[in-house]
Amino acid sequence: MCIIFLKFDPRPASKNAYRLILAANRDEVYSRPSKAADFWGSNNEILSGLDLEEGKEGGSWLGINKRGKLAALTNYLEARQNPDAQGRGFLVSNYLTDNLDSFAYLRKVSSEAHLYNGFNLLTADFRANEDTLCYYGNKGSSEPIHLKAGIYGLSNSLLETPWRKLQHGKQLFTSVVNKTLPRDGLVQELLHILNNEELNTPDLAQESQGVGFSKAILQALSAVCVRSPGYGTRSHMLKLLSLSLSALSSLPPVVKFNQCHICICLSQDQYSHPH
What Pfam families would the database entry show (predicted)? Predict the structure, then answer.
């Protein structure tokens, strides 16, 4: 399970505003090996976390590169999965290294959707003359779509599916991003949302999709920040993108708080290095 909240504002009215504000939680089995968000070894072009699970090494769930490409993935909640399906994390990693634009890449992915278990994929291009954000879910429409400027929520159903946890978190997110806050204040408010462990039950929409899961599991999964034995929220990720991505930074370095890794990714014109 994962959850993503984002505000897409491709041409913000204020020079101090952000083209993208993204706040996300990654939920996973605690024992699954992974690498916290960082640049890829000697490659300082791509920043993401990486899966280290055998057979899935190199996949990711959220990443960005200095060419202005961003991708984010959530799995689709379903009890029965194909154990021989291809690793969904490669959908993110491949986009970050591919030359296809966001929509063309999703068109390609949609033609191979049957090879994967259920997923949702957001892809974006942030360029000097135009910003583009696209979405595709292989349990929904057969074609990807372009997303207009606005605020969106995505969890483990299709985009904007009204699960209670998604509606609750999106309401909190909207309240925060519509304020005029200094960067540090914005970061703290967003992390507060991502750490919200309030259960959002009962939720008939989530329960109907989650047939086959126990009531206890679905209850645990109803929180924005999931806490349960053996499984839960392992990392919080914030992306605050303003004008330039050529000086992309992960600052401060990835730290651990409340059992979770935290990665705050900024385009550098919004951040001054401490001396």
Answer: TANGO2 (PF05742)
- List phi, psi (to 5°) of 106: -70, -30
- What is the mean pLDDT of the segment spanning 241-260? 57
Domains of the chain: 2-161+229-270 (3.60.60)
Name the 3-class secondary structure at 242: coil
Asked whether the predicted pLDDT for residue 222 surpasses 70, the reply is: yes
**How high is the mean pLDDT of the chain?**
91
Q: What Å distances lie between residue 259 and 36, 142, 234, 255, 266, CA to CA?
A: 13, 38, 7, 10, 23
Distance CA 269, CA 104 (A): 30
With beta carbons less than 8 A apart as the criterion, state whether 3 and 163 touch: no
Long-range contacts of 88-92 (CB under 8 A, 24+ apart): 88/59, 88/116, 88/117, 88/119, 89/51, 89/56, 89/58, 89/59, 89/60, 89/61, 90/56, 90/58, 90/59, 91/59, 91/116, 91/119, 91/121, 92/48, 92/59, 92/60, 92/61, 92/62, 92/63, 92/121
